[in-house]
## 1
Amino acid sequence: MRKKLVVGNWKMNGSRAVNAQLLAGFKDSGPWNADVVVCVPFPYIAETALALTGSATAYGAQDCSAHEQGAFTGEVSSTMLADVGCRYVIVGHSERRAYHAESDQLVADKAKAALAHGVTPIVCVGETRSEREAGQTESVVKRQLAAVIHTLGHCCGEIVVAYEPVWAIGTGLTATPEQAQAVHAVLRAQLHAATDRASSMRILYGGSVKAENAAELFSQADIDGGLIGGASLKVGDFAAICLAAAH
Ligand code: PEP
């Protein structure tokens, strides 16, 4: 039985005052019988760590460099993330793939760098609307995951995968539980072919998850929790999703 995992992705939102309220409210609503993580903007990691002291909620970042250290202005290494207590980092979010031209190989290299420093990468994969309409969903997500499997080798059993159809992110459109499950089953099968740890690996669904649709999505056989954008910015909504994951 895989314990559910719910990850909040704050994206580029927040301020010191707003975050303090959000984290305090959230801390008061837990704990849940699920693993919960908030991935916050880099400047707020230290304050998040402080605000979550004594809580079971972990924290992480939304990206990391594929490099260890050196002349990479503006980048943040996974060594640094580990140094400030991050246990997770999102890599390959579709917004980074789209706006920063991140390739499958770069995403895989970031995942490798994270794992090397004890930070669990949450590797995002997902198809665009036009790719789905062209019947390419399976080939796209398998290609994205294959780069990671190839780069990590037997260590690929240590990652978290997040299936996020691009057309469902921030749009209010959600994949039906059946659509999501079908892709999760494909990803699980791909992992089974690569590692004997596949049945214990967590595959999250992301894309307009809300309190109202979370329980049904999370009840699917291969959906092990969610990667939550917009709804993670409201205490009540995020807490309700964490509760839905706890059943
Ligand atoms: C995300 O940013 O990963 C995401 C799933 O966003 P939203 O929940 O807002 O669709």
Note: Residues 5-245 form a domain with the TIM Barrel fold (CATH 3.20.20.70).
## 2
Amino acid sequence: MSTDIAHEEHHHGPPKGIGRWLFSTNHKDIGTMYLVFALTMLFVGGASAMYIRAELFMPGVQFMEPDFYNNMVTNHALIMVFAVVMPAAAGLANWMIPMMIGAPDMALPRLNNLSFWLLPAAAVMLILSTVVPFLPGGGSAINTGWTLYPPLSIQTGMAMDFAIFTVHILGVSSILASINIVVTILNMRAPGMTLFKMPMFCWAWLFTGLLLIIIAPVLAGGVTMLLFDRHFGTSFFDAAGGGDPVLFQHLFWFFGHPEVYVLLLPSIGVLAMIIPTFARKPLFGYNSLVGGMAILFTLGLVAWAHHQYTVGMAAGPTTWFMIITILISIPVGLMLLNFMMTMWRGAMTFETPMLFAVAIVLMFSFAGVTGIMLAVVPADLEYHDSMFVVAHFHYALIPGALMGLLAAAFYWLPKWTGNMYDERLGKIFFWWNVISFNITFFPQHFYGLAGMPRRIVDYNPAFADLNMISSLGAFAYGLSHLLFLYIVIKTVRGGVKAGNKPWEGAQIGTPGLEWDLSSPPPFHSFTTPPVVK
Ligand code: CA
Ligand code: CU
């Protein structure tokens, strides 16, 4: 008998040593690696933001060459989008989706390993691109911003080739991970788990995965054409050779606009899990939320050129893109209404995940309002390339993506580790994080509207006071994440046992199977898939 148990332990327990991680095909271990990678890169991308805000602390150029400043702007964006938010969301998908749908693992476990391990390679390439300009003959940095617009991106130095290769590797990683997630959701559900019984997080990731499969190849194609223009004598984007620089903008934003939903949707899925739990009511309007995401998915694919009103498109397409963009506020408004109706007359409590959820709904709504301002063509012609745009999309993406992921960490850490996080520290983190975020970005609306351009190292002294406030807020905001790191480490190392249902009433409106598993769950989710009653 005892030898049988020992044999079982040997067969089902986690493998030992570095091989456990390098060769892992286990969805929880790969999920953990994604999350650790994202958290590490949050501090790298955050450091570049701190550089930016240090330089903008006062007018005049104090710390850096303009070229390096633009490099920091570019790195900050590329890292936050591709190395923080997307990997963190993929980490949540890996950890939760198999447990939520009653699957033993992801559908394609070896592909899963490859999708993850491509990421550190891409990160190394991106860091090299920052080093290259400092080498003799290294040329200029990637100073284009994350949009990599030609002709500037054709004129820049060797660093751009590293950036292009980075984007290629990231694209391969995203496409493979998305295929895996979509296949898992479509093929691996336990008997009885129909699509419309899935926890909303799975729906959010189904749309996210499909979007990425459509858009990532277009970006890859665009940067490949850029590479050909740089090295192989083509002129796709060079007017002198019969090409069209605006073509690149269309390719980039056909990717770039839906990419915003790739960043937002997983966090919307997280909110749809957290809010019913802490309102102790089923999610209001499950079907309408799925429908809202489907409409968002569809409209999002045909709205891209609102990023380029200023390039001189004809009136017809310009009007189309304006109308579609404004229409997008309808499904987004519906989602927010779903969340508010879920809270309405609920028996709400405000643990850290719920505090974040409420704050996200408020701040994301505000980003929606400034988004409408930017969607309107004559207004956008004034706001374009100003700090107002920077303020707008940070209100969309920090609450809408990053804070949603932080909320998810608080929500699921007890399930992952078996330990409760320190609620007092969690609440301190919430207030510190949200208040300093607003101090950073709220003033940017005003100096943006007053005419301060984005992506420029220096500015008119008239904007000095508000910029100083922004920078002070940014330093506090950046520091707050050290407290998050501390809370996570403390929770992993121990704490009050969470129990198998860490949040009482958590099953209300969330028919997922994850709450039927112990905290922490066994190394393999299920020996035999359970049946949904
Ligand atoms: Ca300065
Ligand atoms: Cu857009």
Note: The mean pLDDT is 93.
## 3
Amino acid sequence: MRRRLIAFCLAIGAALVFVGAAAAGNGGFAPPSPHSPNAGRINDSYKLIALFTGIVLILVEAALVIFVVRYRHRGRPRRAAGPQVHGATRLELIWTAIPVLILAGIASFVLYELPGIKDVPKARAAGDQIAVRVDAHQFYWQFTYPNGAVSIDELHAPVHRVVTLDIHSRDVDHSWWIPELDGKFDAIPGKTNHTWFRADRVGTYRGQCGEFCGIFHAAMKARVVAEPRAAYERWLGTKAKSDLGRSEWIGACAKCHGLGGQGDYGPKIVASPLLTDRQGLETLVRNGRDQPNIPGVMPPVADGWTKQQFDALFAYVGKKVVGGGG
Ligand code: CUA
């Protein structure tokens, strides 16, 4: 009776382990709903593989439990040898052939889907596609648009248009990943990776750096704002510029020094004379500062920035941080 109770409790416990995941969106086990053709294909591949591996898991575990219960020792001496079985040709052929067929099925499906995941759809007309450069920094994403506009951590894109991404890293390995729009692509120093997406509806798609890259890896989030073409053009033409300083402060400075510069992991900087010294500030954020034996040394956060970017940061800091506007 007691053993049954223990077994019952264990079974309930095992079921509860999965409850949270099962209650989450998409059943908890599936990737988020795709909103780009390549993400759709990745999703389909995931589901096919999950189907086969799920069936195999259930069959194997069920057989294991059945055998454990059915052939338990029932008071026989522990050292008594069971009947010796040699060879079961038919069974062995079956358990070899079925896995081969399953793996061949999975491989064929993935190879069939792969071109649609990897290859950028052909442009139907000039200007149909938008090429954005992605630079990963510790600890933010920088996007550079065809007209030279820059944004930080938030990528703006027109809906229903193909956006191609060239992914670079300025320092260590990061990984670009917006699950609803595309697969995971590493950002590697010295190497350019390519991906693309075509958002199928207006909305904000969230992602996260997928490669542990240092102390603020978890804060290295990205969002893609897909908007109607006209709104995108408007943003690109005017808003991108006025948003820049603020997004630089939030993306590159505040993660470490706090939103008001009050200090967080990094030291308090709100009263630093460098904030009102254009050249000093530029030199510091461009080159970082080497301080051996001091944890959290100032990294070269603004490596590769343009003059326009430094100007935007300086203007924002002067007005909002030093000026106390937050
Ligand atoms: Cu960048 Cu993790």
Note: The mean pLDDT is 89.
